[in-house]
């Protein structure tokens, strides 16, 4: 839709009046007379100027608004007329297409006789379609007329030129349409073909002719086509042209509807707008003059009083008169200044007399304030010192409490691990000896209970190792996709047993990290999600960020209330496990995650909504490596290692642990020699014809001795006898950070109680493999033990 408007701009602004045009009488009027009258005249002149400006602005805005509204009305009328014309054209084309498909016409093509009797009345019924008059001619395939609808006279006569156009359309073999100009009138000339189904060629045709004027229902609208340029637009008129959406048969004609209308009706605008503006302006000017006159009289009242007071002082002298002050305007300020001048005359002497007293008072006041400020500063310093001392005392109490907790956990862990280690070893030895005995199932139940207790002790040990700082990351190239695939294979079946889905998003990201510690973090987060999700799904994936890699674990579990989000990373803190059910974990997994993340320089945070689920995110501030990940080494065989045969020296002051470890080693095919101290072990070595292949010593021995000292004494004795050093292992149940650090610094292989039978079997196997090539000096931790830092954290 487009619009065009012509004509001169009716809006004009009044020109400014130059100051030189103001008459001299008006200048005298503004500069002489009473202030109230002058103020009223100035206000009146400003009001006239403002009224003229506002009136002109309102006139311009209103006229433009009416012009836009008038244009919108014309466009709406043009759109309505266009839709009506489109409906008439669509009805006309549809009716003629259906008429061409009518069986009556098909019959007339093959019936050469009697067609005047039934075909002419049939076509005559179509002299109007949707109130639009039209002429119809029915021809054969050569364009010879067979019948018509009876409109063969007047303006709708089908001419010879029309028939010639129809024969050209029949030769083309498809429907056609054209616009013709005849006797000063435009007509729509269109043809529909009667196609023979076998040859797909026209066997006849329908020619219809419609005047353009009958297709437009709006009296001021006209129908245009593409081949004819629009007529020129008269002055002060606007025109709106709307393209028509027509059937495909008429689309090539480019039909448009054009509606002409007069421009903005400015006469009607002036007929009511200018009188209204004039009345409003006169009322405003009258109100301005009356109001400004009243305001001027009110404002000059104080000046008149000052005038009378000055005359009275000049006549009678100063006797304590005072000017009356009203408000806070400039005139009131003048009255206050007048009163101040009078007061100054009377107060000069009094001020001289009081000046000395005032100076003394001021000095005393300043001294008092200085003393008060000094006292306040001293009090603030004392308060600050007291607060600092209280903070130091609170810090010392907190550190003592933390140390007491650490020592308590270490002592409790050590005291628990001793009997637990005995139970584990004796239970394993009993299981080997029972074999298929019916009581073997009871041993399995005992081992399950022991596994739960061992997991608790291992978790406490992990916390202690991380607090002690003995876990050193082993950084290498890690394939994150391999970790995801391994965890998915491990947890998919467990998730399916709970009726939930577990899936990991494949990734090819490689990064430089400790593979065991990174996998432990992700595994603990997956375990936590699996533990608290009873329906829905768990999703493990990662996404790259700018300088960071985010590993995320989504779940649809019970969620975490906002007030618990900061505390879930504390030890033994569980939200929904008040009865401490072992099946819901120990409350240490997330504490280990937080410490491991801090150790590796990562950040872990959680977003959660109760009853909707949680999302744990591990942020790794390292870019992904471009080099491919190194393939992980092949895992150890699932079967128990073959320990072979050899001699093991066991040094432990606990008889139950010593007995259980001895029985288990002997059941595995080795010969065990047990001692309760370093001296006892040296005496036994002197009686042995062969040196031991393995030395296992407890870290804590009687009388304050340690297993490190015992192993050192055994190595020294063997070296003096010319024997190579055996594989030396230190067993410890102590979780104190300083004890863990000492044991880690010794260089020996460190195992933490309780150890299982498979670990003992692995030690025996490692001792037989390492024996031939061992250096007589103290051997460093073997390659398998180098992974102990990570392996301990996998339990």
UniProtKB/TrEMBL annotation:
List each copy of the Histidine kinase domain by range. 411-624
Q: Which residues carry the post-translational modification 4-aspartylphosphate, per the record?
A: 698
- Bilayer-crossing residues are 39-61, 269-291
GO CC terms in record: plasma membrane
Q: Which UniProt keywords apply?
A: Coiled coil, Kinase, Membrane, Phosphoprotein, Plasmid, Transferase, Transmembrane, Transmembrane helix
Q: Name one GO molecular function term.
A: phosphorelay sensor kinase activity
Q: Where is this region: Disordered?
A: 1-20, 766-795
Q: Which domain of life is it from?
A: Bacteria
The family database entries (CDD domains) matched by this protein are listed as: HAMP, HisKA, REC, UDM1_RNF168
Chief location of this protein within or outside the cell: membrane
Give the InterPro entries listed for this entry: CheY-like_superfamily, HAMP_dom, HATPase_C_sf, HATPase_dom, His_kinase_dom, HisK_dim/P_dom, HisK_dim/P_sf, Sig_transdc_His_kin-like_C
Quote the EC number: 2.7.13.3
Q: Where is the Response regulatory domain?
A: 647-768
Query: Where along the sequence do coiled-coil regions lie?
Result: 363-390
Catalytic function, reaction form: ATP + protein L-histidine = ADP + protein N-phospho-L-histidine
Which Pfam families does the protein's record reference? Answer: HAMP (PF00672), HATPase_c (PF02518), HisKA (PF00512), Response_reg (PF00072)
- The HAMP domain covers 297-350
Biased composition, class Basic and acidic residues, residue ranges: 767-777
> What is the annotated localization of this protein?
Membrane
Entry-linked PANTHER family: HISTIDINE KINASE, TWO-COMPONENT HISTIDINE PROTEIN KINASE
Recorded protein name is: histidine kinase
Organism of origin is: Azospirillum lipoferum (strain 4B)
